[in-house]
Amino acid sequence: MSKLTVFDHPVISHKLGYLRDKNTGGKDFRALVNEISMLMAYEVTRDLKTDEVEIETPLQKTKVKRLSGKKLGVVPILRAGLGMVEGMLNILPAAKVGHIGLYRDPETLQPVEYYCKLPVDAEERDFLVLDPMLATGGSASDAIKLLKQKGCKNIKLVCIIAAPEGVKAVQKNHPDVDIFVAALDEKLNEHSYIIPGLGDAGDRLFGTK
């Protein structure tokens, strides 16, 4: 079974409180998603390997740690996942960015793929799949499945808010994919929206309805 990590950092909790507030406007909402994503990146990348190298300070030679050069990629699930990309790249500027487009059929509530564009060396990279909301888990599971079909083996899922139903679905479909969330909410309502949640992340990011 994959590991679920729920962040309990006070700064993330503080920013998440403003993110949930219905009175938070689009500009501030986008900034908060960016900031929370950047803060989450620290923990998500905790297990990156490092090499010891020798450098010279202004005073003497010494040994320091550098990332071992493992290739990374971030893949936002369109469109809401786009809001998390900049925050991740602030910490991982060398990462390549892929895109996966999925929408939820309003009748079946199942994800439908309409776009997939990945780096040419995707099979050589460790990927972080980004989506602010993990609701039913259908879109995330399908995005991860697409990555695996392209030969990707080391994948993590990074979400800001998750419902227990979505976590269980991803863990069932992809027991090898660890999940990182800023908050685990109560449940899904009858329309598959996360409760208490924050509404539709895509609409709030981009000012649509």
From TrEMBL:
**Does the record's keyword annotation contain ATP-binding?**
no
Catalysed reactions, as listed in the record:
UMP + diphosphate = 5-phospho-alpha-D-ribose 1-diphosphate + uracil
Q: How many and how are cofactors bound here?
A: Binds 1 Mg(2+) ion per subunit. The magnesium is bound as Mg-PRPP.
Give UniProt keywords alphabetically. Answer: Allosteric enzyme, Glycosyltransferase, GTP-binding, Magnesium, Nucleotide-binding, Transferase
Pathway(s) the chain acts in: Pyrimidine metabolism; UMP biosynthesis via salvage pathway; UMP from uracil: step 1/1
> Which Gene3D superfamilies does its entry note?
3.40.50.2020
Keyword Nucleotide-binding in record: yes
Q: What is its EC number?
A: 2.4.2.9
Q: Name one GO biological process term.
A: uracil salvage
What is reported on the regulation of this protein's activity?
Answer: Allosterically activated by GTP.
Ligand binding (uracil): 194, 199-201
Q: Which residues does 5-phospho-alpha-D-ribose 1-diphosphate bind?
A: 79, 104, 131-139, 200
Q: Where is the Phosphoribosyltransferase domain?
A: 6-208
Cofactor(s) the protein needs: Mg(2+)
The GO cellular component terms are: cytoplasm
Q: Please give one Gene Ontology molecular function term for this protein.
A: uracil phosphoribosyltransferase activity
What does the UniProt function comment say about this protein? Catalyzes the conversion of uracil and 5-phospho-alpha-D-ribose 1-diphosphate (PRPP) to UMP and diphosphate.
| HAMAP family registered for this protein in UniProt | Upp_B (MF_01218_B)
Family the entry assigns = Belongs to the UPRTase family.
**Which protein, by its recorded name, is this?**
Uracil phosphoribosyltransferase
Its lineage reads: Bacteria, Bacillati, Bacillota, Tissierellia, Tissierellales
Name of encoding gene:
upp
